[in-house]
Amino acid sequence: MATNPTTTNNKKQPSIPPKRGQIKARIFDSLVKTVVSTVTSRVPTSETTGNTPSPPASSYNSDANSETT
């Protein structure tokens, strides 16, 4: 029995919606990849600059508070 190729190609398979949570997972994965690539491209690390970050300067002066009487 031969089938007619025009009738088998005209049938469209119904599209099945994705499983529950699959769309949110794709969106979240895409968002994470975008944020990570943006942050890593803008913030220089100590490995790329060759310098280690120095601690912030403090405005505390220990000599000003020590009074001798």
Task: Write structural notes for this entry.
This protein is an all-alpha fold. The chain has three helices and no strands.
What is the helical fraction, as a range of percent?
40-55%
* N-end to C-end Cα span: 115 Å
Order of helices and strands: HHH
- Unreliable spans are none
% residues in beta strands: under 5%
Number of strands: 0
Q: What would the average pLDDT be, to the nearest integer?
A: 74
Class from secondary-structure proportions: mainly alpha
This entry's quaternary arrangement is single chain
Q: Sheet with the most strands?
A: none
Whole-angstrom Rg: 32 Å
What best-fitting shape do the alpha-carbon axes yield? rod-shaped
Number of helices: 3
